[in-house]
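Priority: medium. Attachment 1 of 2:
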């Protein structure tokens, strides 16, 4: 695991994107088509701004995303499909394919089957993600399932996770935050060739310390990244403030 600490979240986003761009370009040099995973949320703003400006042949790239609320329409301001369309997909007209997670599908089990089939046909070259204030990875809240091998699954959101979404101003009240989501599994995330984590802000400092310096445990879902063969963690001075080194 390689950790880079930046002075601020803007530099963090630039460096994380540069690392991911190099990984994408390396994959494209060796394969006709590749697949990547993108995360959403406030932690990804600066990284995505830099990523979409890169010299990448997007016509050879498929994008999956990590998770989506169940029951939230795609025009809601908190919809992750909307987030990715506005910030990425609509700005990349040559993109080969975007595989969105339809959390408002009439049949959620069938939607999960669709996603599992599609991602099962791909090798994921690069995954961009963050971690939550409760150290969740995607929407795998503690205690996360470290054993399932299904790529996507239905999960319940704990109160700490839902409070974070409220605190980031995606919802007006806690009651507005959905109770469930479709999330990429821990196992699927860990299959990515390169894992790039962008984690700014002091509110994430305790989660960062537990994930990077504590034991690997499903009570701290993001701690699993310690076992990834090529995990690159990008922090700012605030999110890194509780690290011992």
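Attachment 2 of 2:
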């Amino acid at each position: 695991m390689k950790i880079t600490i930046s002075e601020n979240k803007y530099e963090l986003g630039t460096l994380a994107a540069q690392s991911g761009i190099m990984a994408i370009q390396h994959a494209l040099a060796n394969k006709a088509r590749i697949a990547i995973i993108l995360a959403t949320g406030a932690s990804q703003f600066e990284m995505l701004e830099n990523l979409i400006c890169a010299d990448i042949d997007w016509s050879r790239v498929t994008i999956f995303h990590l998770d989506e609320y169940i029951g939230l329409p795609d025009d809601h301001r908190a919809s992750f499909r909307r987030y990715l369309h506005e910030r990425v997909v609509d700005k990349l007209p040559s993109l080969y394919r975007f595989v969105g997670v339809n959390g408002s599908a009439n049949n959620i089990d069938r939607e999960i089957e669709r996603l599992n089939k599609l991602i099962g046909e791909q090798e994921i070259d690069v995954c961009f993600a963050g971690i939550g204030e409760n150290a969740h990875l995607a929407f795998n809240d503690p205690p996360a399932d470290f054993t399932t091998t299904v790529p996507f699954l239905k999960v319940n959101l704990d109160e700490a996770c839902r409070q974070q979404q409220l605190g980031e101003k995606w919802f007006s009240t806690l009651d507005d935050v959905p109770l469930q989501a479709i999330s990429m599994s821990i196992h699927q995330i860990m299959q990515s060739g390169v894992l790039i984590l962008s984690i700014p802000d002091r509110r994430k400092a305790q989660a960062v310390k537990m994930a990077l310096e504590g034991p690997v445990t499903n009570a701290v879902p993001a701690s699993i990244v310690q076992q990834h063969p090529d995990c690159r963690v990008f922090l700012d001075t605030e999110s890194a403030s509780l690290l011992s080194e």
